[in-house]
Specification:
By secondary structure, the chain is α/β, with parallel strands linked by helices. It has three domains: about 20-75, no CATH class; about 85-165; about 180-400, Rossmann fold, CATH 3.40.50. It is about 35% helix and about 15% strand. The protein has helices spanning about 10-20, 30, 40-50, 60-75, 80-90, 130-135, 175-180, 185-200, 210-215, 220-225, 240-245, 260-265, 275, 295-305, 355-360, 390-395, 405-410, 420-440, 445-470; strands at about 25, 95-100, 115-120, 125-130, 145-150, 160-165, 230-235, 250-255, 280-285, 310, 320, 325-330, 365-370, 385. The strands form four sheets. Strands 2-3-4-6-5 form a five-stranded mixed beta barrel. Strands 8-9-12-7-13 form a five-stranded parallel β-sheet. A hairpin with a 4-residue loop joins strand 3 (about 115-120) and strand 4 (about 125-130). The model is unreliable at about 1-5 (pLDDT under 50).
Length: about 475
């Protein structure tokens, strides 16, 4: 059941008129069942618009058409041997999956072998692939790309990627995206479009303006380089949902053990870790995170959080640089009043190294997930929003635009008695990120900047300050409250 605000109803037709084929009825995806089989939203929405374009929930006939396509094109792990047999008997197979390309060092450690393609869902790790296909799709060498993969076995008896058709959105022009925004005079109307595009129902009464602000703050790591943030929330608020579905340049590592090889570099294979391959890396369930040899892990992590590079001497004397944003998600317990049990030390129940002030101070802010309602079925978007593939690429395209940071610096005044250098840097990055999200055309008043960008940016950092103030006398000389205008 939709609860439409009488003051500002969601205008589906306006979205269709402005964005055309870049928009989609968000009811299509939940009714398709594609995400339940592990297809991320940015791939699923692209496919739906190609296979069964239309509006509303899928009809039984459309659903059957999608099912036939999925059974034919999307391999499962237990299809591995059958596909190998078909290839061995001379057939050509076309599948839709994520593919990556890796280049190994030879046994001597200096000679570089021929590149090879990996298709993780099938466990294929050494497929031949031409350099032409790699040069046409360079992101294969990083986090990989979803696309249509054509496989065959030529005379050399090895599986080969014969052809590759990547899934890509049709528009990445920042100026065009800014022009789209200029057609929305009301920032709340634009917020609702972003909210719907994330997959949430902007008309649900539980999504208050404040809740929407903090849910939209989850997107800041996509638009800001090296933006490191935590979100602390009770279970069930959907912390990782948007990260798992928005773009292949965003990776999620869930709970358990995280190794130095996973994050930084694999000392045996010399493969760059996740921080060097992705634009955004999400560590989920960090309350249960365990690390072997914490000293060897936390040192490079602190260095990376501070300056966007890390040095692993076993690989190279030169530091490895990256602009990957790091997001840390954790569950916390709340009181009966739905407030954190340790409001002045929010990371108290996380692994001990999060309470090390040298690490905590390098994190830009904490998203107050306890101010976000728990997810319910009625909170799924049912309006027209942006296709997830276009939406994700449009946000990532804003990362390299320096105008927003310059605007934030020009329109922010810090009280030097209450703010240190890291506070300033963090607040400016948060405010710049919110500017990119809400005002990509950079047309706003100083009052709008203060209300929609600077105020939440300060609050994000204030949660860090509260813990630092509690943990270390050094930070008490600034007082507990951050003051800036």
């Amino acid at each position: 059941m939709n609860n439409i605000s009488p003051e500002r109803p969601y205008n589906n037709q306006k979205i269709r008129d402005i964005f055309g084929e870049l928009s989609i009825d968000k009811r299509r995806l939940p009714s398709s069942g594609l995400t339940s089989i592990g297809v991320p939203s940015f791939v699923a929405e692209w496919l739906l618009d190609k296979i069964v374009p239309g509006e509303g929930e899928l009809t039984p006939q459309e659903h059957e058409k999608v099912n036939r396509f999925v059974q034919k094109a999307f391999p499962r792990k237990d299809d591995r041997e059958e596909i190998k047999f078909d290839l061995k008997t001379g057939q050509t197979k076309t599948i839709i999956a994520l593919m990556q390309v890796r280049v190994k060092f030879g046994k001597g450690g200096e000679e570089i072998t021929e590149p090879f393609a990996r298709i993780p869902t099938l466990g294929f790790d050494s497929c031949m692939i031409s350099t032409d296909l790699i040069n046409e799709n360079r992101m294969l060498l990083r986090q990989g790309i979803w696309g249509k993969i054509t496989l065959s076995i030529p005379s050399n008896n090895k599986i080969e990627v014969f052809d590759f058709d990547p899934f890509q959105c049709s528009l990445l022009d920042r100026n065009a995206y800014a022009n789209f925004r200029a057609q929305f005079s009301n920032v709340e109307e634009w917020k609702d479009l972003l909210f719907c595009s994330m997959g949430y129902n902007p008309e649900h009464p539980s999504y208050t303006p404040e809740a929407k602000t903090w849910m939209l703050a989850r997107l800041i790591p996509l638009v800001e380089r090296n933006y490191h943030v935590m979100e602390l929330a009770p279970k069930g608020t959907g912390k990782s949902f948007v990260f798992e579905n928005i773009n292949s340049k965003v990776a999620v590592l869930s709970g358990g053990k995280v190794t130095r090889a996973q994050l930084f570099i694999n000392g045996r294979t010399k493969e760059i870790g996740a921080l060097g391959r992705h634009d955004v890396l999400v560590l989920d369930e960090v309350q249960s995170l365990t690390i072997d040899n914490p000293d060897e892990f936390i040192g490079p992590l602190k260095t990376y959080l501070a300056n966007g590079s890390y040095n692993v001497s076993s690989f190279s004397d030169q530091p490895i640089t990256s602009d990957c944003s790091l997001v840390m998600l954790a569950n916390i317990e709340l009181t009966s009043q739905l407030q954190p049990r340790n409001p002045n030390h929010l990371v108290a129940n996380l692994p001990r190294f999060f309470s090390e002030t040298a690490l905590l101070d390098r994190i830009c802010g904490i998203i107050p997930g306890w101010k976000i309602p728990k997810f319910q079925q009625a909170m799924i978007a049912s309006q027209v929003g942006l296709k997830m593939d276009f939406f994700g690429e449009a946000l990532l395209a804003l990362r390299s635009d320096p105008r927003f940071e310059a605007y934030a610096k020009q329109h922010t005044n810090f009280d030097s008695k209450t703010v240190n250098v890291r506070d300033e840097k963090s607040i400016i990055k948060s405010a710049s990120g919110l500017l990119k999200l809400l005002y990509p055309h950079l047309e706003l008043t100083p009052t709008e900047y203060q209300e929609h960008c600077l105020k939440p940016a300060v609050e994000l950092r204030q949660y860090i300050r509260n813990s630092l103030y509690h943990l270390d006398d050094e930070f008490r000389r600034y007082g507990q409250k951050i003051i800036c205008t």
